[in-house]
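Progress against Task 2.4 (sequence-to-structure conversion) is shown through the following example record, which the project officer requested during the mid-term review.
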Amino acid sequence: CCTKPFPVTRTVRDIDQGKKRKYQFHIPIPVGQGFFPFSIPPTEWDDEVKARVQSPSGDKVAILREENDQKGKNGRQVMEIWTNFGQSLSQRIIVPTDQHGKIINDPAGFGTLQWNPDETAVVYAAERKVPKNVRSFFEKSTTADGNGEDEKVVGGEYTQGLGKSETWGEKYTTISGSLDLFILAIETEKVGRVQNVPGGDFDPLDSSGGSTLGQAVFSPCGTHLVYTAWDAGAGGQMPRRLGLIYCLNRPSKICMSNVTKLVESLLNSAEDDTDAMSIMSSPSAAVSTARKHFGLTEKLDEGFTCLTPDSMLSRSPRFSPVKNRLSRLCFLSNKPGFDTHYGCFGLHSIYWDTQEKKPNLENYQILMDQLADPQPLDDNNSVQVGNMGFPGLYVSDLPANCCTSEFLLTTTQWGSVQKVVRISLADGHVSLVNVDIIRSNGGSTERNASQQLLCVTAEGGAVFSESAPNRPSVVAYVQPELLARDNVARKVEATLVSEMGPIAASSFSPTIESDVMKRLNFSYDVLAMRPPQFKDTVDTQVQWVLLRPRARFDGKKPALIVVPHGGPHSCTPTSFIPSYAFLCAHGGYAILHVNYRGSTGFGQNALEALPGNIGTLDVKDVVHAAVTLSESGWIDPDRIGVCGGSHGGFLASHLIGQYPDMFKVAAMRNPVTNIASMVTATDIPDWCYVETMGCGYIKPEEFRAPYKEELGVMYDMSPIKHVSKVQAPTLVALGMSDQRVPPSQGLEFYHAIRARGVKTKLLTYDDDDHAIDKPKSEADHWINIKRWFDEHL
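Structure tokens generated for the chain above:
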């Protein structure tokens, strides 16, 4: 038996301590024949560990720590280097605090630290530091007589860009909106700022904007960095920083910078780097001091190259393994961009010559373009998921290790199911990877279970996870020869390597594995149909995911909870979602997830049918789903409730206003209820214009206050217009730190229906934002929801 461990990090909610705990699992991956799975107990990350990144060879592990002082306050950032395949702590590097602020660990957004190929340095994004040379008007001058030139910026204490920083909105309120790239040399422990980047020559006393940098990776030869640059004012497309999380429509480019001299200087053990790192001269002492503070030194490497000058949206650079001296730089891109906050991406690539140590810019290739409508993958259109052809790439970022020398693999939303596709790096041909996980009990993968790619191994195999609405994730491995065969749309057998057991989240609710599996004894279906035509919208398929509770002993039909998703441009997949598994398994409710027109994973045309029609088209699709299921005779048509958050809350409040006799009870989380009063208070005002006025109506660079006529349209499309007809008991839950949908939205609706005598209940979570995902708040919220439905449905 030959195996090697694969590290997997699992996050568990700890209700007792009100935090999320991380556990590192080492899952055995089969190499060769005779594999027998074995169990290695997981190890827990302590709270000070923020990131773990393995080097390309696997011999080294960089661990980023934020260590507190004895009083429990944030102290220093430390980079630990573990060698001998993570067995020996060889080095602890105290990261200098003079050049930058917090190091960013945001794998799903701005990225995390990455090794260079030689494993001698790491690159990371970090906050541009708030300068210490900013002083209040009421602070004494630092000069001896008070009359000389002060090295501090007077009055900058509350100035945006100096004492204060403009952020990227929801979930990023504690992170500076200005991020720079830095390289840390392991042996010498030196840190250098990468200056030959977009906005690298910024004026430290000018707060007008620049570029925010992240997702950096080293080229295979180690001479260049390739990274994503978001327009933060320098490109003229973002006069203000709009909310970034869940919003992939923010202008961004893929750029590269030569860092050869910078890396050489950092690896040089000489103490005196005065010549190489000398400070630029400046006419002003204040400016000079500010430049020193920000690490603006003499550039060692000149210039940068924008690799995607003609694309509005580009992100997530990845390199394929080198073959015959060539590598492929692959990234997501959409040349025209999209106005909606999510959309279909294409896959672009550029050859990288490791001998010449540069890309071949003349060999720019669009491996796969964004798709307007689902397309067949073969001549017979036999490869389908949910009776639908391939809809295009709906993915926010490519997996960190996703390439062989021949293919790129990634997860994508294919209707209501998450699937893995294989894309040829030679010609862009797309294949569905139909993974069949063989279990010891003889069972295999359910047809509509969702699968995700975790990584491609160095040997060319792949590690997958799989879950379903009634089953948590398992981990499986596909051998290289199976992954590389021609027809992977036929079942590709995978070896089950881990079925992670449950971990008790609270002392109030101990977990017994057999008991948990018994409680998840419910089934699910994916239902597909074409809804009634509305105006001139595209004729498209919609899908519903139905969770069916086990039959009651008394023969009663189950009550139905209709769940429209948020966004609106997202999708509820057939993966395990604990909250709805709880309502179905423990509450006995049938759950109907409606992926209405405008959802992701059905083609860009279907997605763009919704803007300009919200409050009508999406409402009609949800009602059509509820009526169809009611007429099936399977559920109790007199007991239908609705539950949703964000845009799902928008639809929930619309449904109880427009169809008060159908929906008997509602529960909503951070709902949009009055777009006219939201547009000037949200971190995504563009959402309010696009969803009410339609695509192409306004661009980010045209940011302005709404006109009187626009406010009227926004009000007419809002649930508040129908509030006088609401009679269903309504539960409203609000994260009081929400930047996306201000709490005033839910409060406005709550007070309006309470004043009319409608039974209502308000939950407020002071420290939670849009997601209400702090462990204790989340648990309290969902228990309240179940009790509310138990009482009124």
